[in-house]
Every structure is written in structure tokens, then in C-alpha cells.
Design brief:
110 residues; alpha+beta; 5 strands; globular; binds FE2/S2 (inorganic) cluster
Length: 110
């Protein structure tokens, strides 16, 4: 079974099983990783924002315009930011690593 790695907002590194064909958001949900995904993958939010490890980023197909538009609204965007619901795991992605940005939550504090 391929694996992927989530780096959680507190820096915890979690390596989890990552079946081919699932989106990163679906993998996160299977393993109770704290990634919201409010619109269930319909590109109507940016709560599934993740920052892809630079060494993995070039492997991904380019983001579509709709994804870019949503990322513009996300907090804590980095050069390698993507939306987790738009990335599907392929055979080359064993070990794929993303970080979950914590900024959006911080901004909501009162
Ligand atoms: S879950 Fe809303 S854009 Fe990914």
C-alpha cells in the first residue's frame, strides 16, 4: 500500500496508507486528519488548502483556473499550495508529503 505524509498544524508528522485513486482530502478523512473540506471537493471553498512539499510539487498536473481562484482566497498560501480535493493519488506518489497550514484558524480567533 502506498503511503503519504501529513504534517499537521502543530508539526506532528503522520504517515498513513494512501490508496491509489483517492484524493488527498479523502485520504485525510480516512485517517482523521484535521482538514476541513467544507464543499466536499466541488471547488467552492478553500478549506482543503495544503502546502505540498517542494520536492513533490512538480509531479502534479498544473492547477486549473478554478482551483487557482479558490487558492487566492485561502490564508497562508505558499508557492506550492494546492487544494487537497483536486489532487488524486497516482502510483508515482508513494511518500507524497503535504503540510496543513494553520493560519486560517488563527485568523478566526477573537
Ligand atoms: S473541499 Fe472545497 S475546494 Fe476542496
Amino acid at each position: 500500500m502506498p503511503k503519504m505524509v501529513f504534517i499537521e498544524t502543530d508539526g506532528t508528522r503522520r504517515e498513513v496508507d494512501a490508496p491509489l485513486g483517492l484524493s488527498i482530502l479523502e485520504v485525510a478523512r480516512r485517517h482523521d486528519i484535521d482538514l476541513e473540506g467544507a464543499c466536499e471537493g466541488s471547488l467552492a471553498c478553500s478549506t482543503c488548502h495544503v502546502v505540498v512539499a517542494p520536492e513533490w510539487y512538480d509531479l502534479l498536473p498544473d492547477a486549473q483556473e478554478d482551483e487557482e481562484d479558490m487558492l487566492d482566497l485561502a490564508a497562508g498560501v505558499a508557492r506550492t499550495s494546492r487544494l487537497a480535493c483536486q489532487i488524486t493519488l497516482t502510483g508515482e506518489m508513494d511518500g507524497f508529503t503535504v503540510r496543513i497550514p494553520g493560519e486560517s484558524r488563527d485568523m478566526q480567533r477573537g
